[in-house]
Specification:
The protein has about 130 residues and is mainly alpha-helical. The chain has five helices and no strands. The longest helix has 29 residues. The radius of gyration is 17 Å and the shape is globular. This is Crp/Fnr family transcriptional regulator.
Length: about 130
């Protein structure tokens, strides 16, 4: 078995990656690609922001599965930024009985809004640092 080299952080990242399910591995790779693009100087004037994955909404879906689908759809959106609002919507469903379909609609809007904000920030940085 070949010995893996790299810093402690790289080894930790490899271990975390191996422990993810395939869908989350893809999300992690897309997020890493986004970070690599956004943290390096832009060589070309027309760098595009990553597009959301095209994962269609099933007709019957639980709120938990919807959150997983939306995380995979928008891997570039930081989960920490969504934690409070997502938790509130989940509580509205589980504790207060709000219909899953309505909560999922709101979750989709929430993820879409955060994506739009992130994209606008990215585009603004491109304008400021051509």
């Amino acid at each position: 078995m070949p010995q893996q080299s790299g810093s402690a952080e790289e080894k930790r990242l490899r271990k975390l990656y191996r422990n993810l399910n395939p869908q989350d591995q893809v999300a992690l790779l897309r997020f890493a690609e986004f970070l690599a693009v956004s943290s390096t100087p832009v060589a070309e004037p027309m760098v595009e922001f990553p597009q959301p994955e095209n994962i269609s909404r099933p007709t019957q879906e639980s709120v938990v599965k919807a959150i997983k689908r939306l995380v995979a759809t928008y891997p570039m959106v930081d989960r920490e930024r969504l934690l409070n609002e997502t938790s509130s919507l989940m509580t509205a469903h589980v504790i207060h009985g709000k219909a899953a379909v309505n909560v999922i609609d709101e979750l989709e809007a929430l993820f879409g809004q955060h994506y739009a904000i992130l994209k606008a920030e990215f585009e603004q940085r491109l304008l400021e640092n051509p």
